[in-house]
Fold each of these.
Amino acid sequence: MKRKILSLAVMGAICFAGSQSFASMINQQNARQIVGTKISIGYAGYHLHYKESSNPSDKDTAWMNGGKIKLEYISQDKGFLGHRYAWGTFMYAASSNGKYYGANQDFLGDYHKLETNTDESIERGEGGFGYAQIIKNKFIVKESIVIGEQWWNRKIKDGVDKEGYPAKGYEEDYGNMYAGLQLEGDYYFSNGLSVGLVAMGAVSPKNESINQMYNKLNGDTYKMGKAYRWKVALPISYETGRLTFDITPFYSGWIFHKSDVKKDYIDGGGYILSWEPSSRTEETGFYANIAYKF
């Protein structure tokens, strides 16, 4: 919890440092009122698909329901690189009826197919700052540096495999900080409608303090290998007065490389080796938001 609060505070400070005071931000003479401060809140829903690269049969699937809040600021003043631009988001989504597909090892050492339920919860805080170029009040291009962190709690419930053997569940906590670049382009029509394209790429380095997974079953904290995050989104918005309604289909995900190897000592002497395998996580869904411009 302390790490989450600290991460969100740092991202908020970065966004604030990339902007000016929030006072007197609105340029009422701008035909589209593109500059200024906007806060949005809404629904976030997506299909989660997790798969281990070394064992494709080991995977999670779930429909995640949650919410998202975003604060965005574009300055009035135009410099050499355009208007100063800053933003920050926080999203939470969860599922209590996900599915886990994997394998269960019986007391003879044989493996059997396993299907059981999962609880999933994902929180993500993200912030960015950069510049925005406004072209004839119709087209806007935004470039920004992105810094964020994701917290994922993955709980595999107890179950029974296909052969009737009991399967012990387990729980994992992932914490992954990342940094990258984001590019967004939006075109504004005269009737209040706008359409856009967002592309983001980021990297999470191999470092236990910022890229880790904790397994509550054996008590090990694994230093994950280097990870990559991506996102592509298609925002569609309608503006009327100070309100904006939008729906944004998106596709995003992670690629994680294998973690370090841990020694787990067992009663009676000896040890077994454990690690978190490389994996790929994909999210396909949409945001539905309402925004207010100050």
Amino acid sequence: MRKLSLATVVLFYTLIISCEKGTQVNPNDFFIAANLGSTNWIAQPSTAYLANKDTLQISGSYADGSQNLVMKVPFQGRGNYTLDSSQASFATYNIEGGVSVPTAQYKLDTTQINTVSLDQSNVYVETGSFQLHFIKVSGSSTAANTLTFANGKFWVALPNIN
């Protein structure tokens, strides 16, 4: 049922993407979504260029700020990219009195294949998919030791390069 819900959300956004929008882009339409265990994980994205604008950083903050995903993807056009241990991270937080307190930090599990696909882009928007596997490096003993983002999709605004 949850996978069906994520599929519905992704289908909805795919329909939005395919509509003619010209250069007008609504920031509320952007998303990062995946199955995180049994949860339909949907986050508000942000992006930035790193290095010599040859790397696109895509970050997603879960609704209440309690989780944050960061992917650093080589930005060399359409294609499938395998990420190494330094190119993605995930963290969980408790929000206490409006302050984020870290509860667990994760790094990519390099014993598994971690991929990001850049599917389509124009001057304003990038779409793609991802599959990421993480292992806990620090944090609460009650936090999961491993996490997998499966069937990930994103539609994000490209950073302004001015």
Amino acid sequence: MHARFAIAISLLLLLTVLPSWAVSPDTVQLGANVDNIRFEKGTRIAMVRVVNTSNKDISGLNLSMDVAYPQGQYHYERLLDFAAKIISQQKAGQEDNGALHPRTAVEERLDLPIRGGNLPLAVTARVDVVAYADSTADVGNDAAFQRLVDLRRNHILAITKAAEIINEAAADSVTPDPRGMALTRLRALLGQARHKQGEHELETELMVIIDDLEKRGPETGPADLRRYATDKVRDSEAMAPHAALRRSR
């Protein structure tokens, strides 16, 4: 996967403002928590450290943050998804599978927004969804849990659509440039995704695939295209268990 897009795929940074009534208090015992926040007044950067307190690998989580401004308090959420990174590192045969392992931590940088020209005064954060590599999840925020499931399903959908386009171009016996045909159709699909709300994952994955095909050059033949499409289908199959999350309690 191209380095420019790997982080966008493996760590989706979803910063969403929500009204306070849309977020229910965390009443579920979760397998991860925020154990430290580093924030200095006069800046908009907070560093949040999350620790895996469970005995399982974590494949994704949701951070809920309450940020104080002079004019009041606002709620934001950030979704961190490691599933694509897990799949990529497993394919590469790396010893570390890319998950957040038990009793280890990840530190996440938050670039908090300026509101009404004002910098944030303080920030609190908590984990309210934890997804595990075994396809179970601790859920203290129903909406965030559904966003994570939808994110992974859309990742599968994006790969499936792209593989279909590439295989159709490879099977075309008329075109002298199957790679060019595939790229034209993928770029059209990318343009459609950019104009639709909620199509971020489709857009990002299409950018990765287009970049891959552009690098392969015009000499890429049908057999090479079919092999590439098959590899992407395997990625979608590996993602399927991560998209079939079930609540652990």
Amino acid sequence: MVFSKRLTQYLCYCLDTLKSNEGISSLIRYSSYVNFNREHPDKFNKYRQIFQKKGKLNPFYFFIDNVIAIFKIARSLSFIRLNKKPIKISKHVNINTIFISHLVHKDKNGPDNDFYFNHIVRAFPKNEVTLFIYLQHIKLGFSTLRKLNARNIIILKAKFSAIQILTITMRWLLVLLDTKILKKSSPYVRPVYFEAIKLHNVLESNRIELLLQQVEQIVTILKPKIICHTFEGHGFEIGLYKICEKHNIIIHFYQLSLLPHSNQLKHYNQFKNAKIFVTGQYQLQKLIQHNHLDTKNVILIGSNKGDEGQKRNNLISENKKDILFLPEGLVSEVDSFVLLINEIAKFNLDVTMILRLHPILNTKNFSRKIRKKIRNADCILSNNVITHDLQTVNNCVFRSSTSVFEALKYGVQPIYYGVEGKIALSPLDTYSAELPQIHHSLNNLKSILNQVKRTKWSSKNTKVAYLKKILRFYFEPLQKDKLRKYYNLNEQ
């Protein structure tokens, strides 16, 4: 089932209807289910059952899903301790700027190595003290957590106490038993309601609320002037803005990857004191065209992705046949690439393939599974930094990963991988018609790969110059002087 534009619009209408109900919204307002921020197969899978049922509800499956959620909660209760101790923060530390980032790799943290904001912090004077607060997306051992928290870093805790879980469950049951909500909603909104109100969505929303409470505790003590966060359309961003508005703090949202879905952008219309920094003309034009945003607060600031890439290794042959595969940080996307790699191996084209996983998936267990799946193909699972891989290949295959911009920076030829029956996801959508594409189920696979074999790389190659021109449309070089202006910083 492919989601059409009309179906997507109807879905957004249903979700907005739910969020407008105060009783429901108080339970699920921050859940990813009701914050539709992106058109992606994994995102659509959450809603697929609703439309396949054609508006009909199956009470049995609703009951089973919630029993499973309750069982998972009960199983984890023995490991949950009541956290009465507040986060320890020194009131004497003078911090003007707080960065709230995502912890996706144990080594990618702090001002110098942060996965998202390190290039921003480098524009700051050396004596400027900043604090990094992390939303944790990976599992870390206790000793690692303690080491990280000992520096100018705070990793937020997302575990509930037994009392908190009991309170949330009671609130959920009260809303579930409120028949007035169902009477007021249309028949086609009801299935969306019953999916959205499932206990795992309620817990997700409340977990985000718990993180926001910790953020508010920190800013109440430190009283920063500016808070910086990513701009992706998540429910956390909406809650964060409310905290900043309450405490009279300026908030800077940084667009560092794909823009949020247009339906989610309208929630940013209420963000009067927020600045949205974008990386290129493409994003600037898209947001200016969007009638929900105050365009005075949308600022082109650029990115380190727009800077010149390092010189490629002179030892690389112009006829090098390596292909780098760049899946997004989703298991389903990696699986699609594994299928393609095994399909390519059948052609015996003397092409060496390199697969690199997103940091969030690059764990020992997952890497071991992927190695088994590609063991019959001439494919290397890379553990190198991406800049190393990009300096050793001439071509890369991508779908929705924004790592393709890094590839453009190094003059690597991008090839879009279209999966049959799935929506187009290319971050380079403006140039899609001008770039080669492959479909593992179509006849063009072998011809494209033969074309890859004939591709020659040269620093004077007009094709490489064109690729870098594409990059500039999405990512201009970071404007450090402009950046310092918004932080009231003088270069020292």
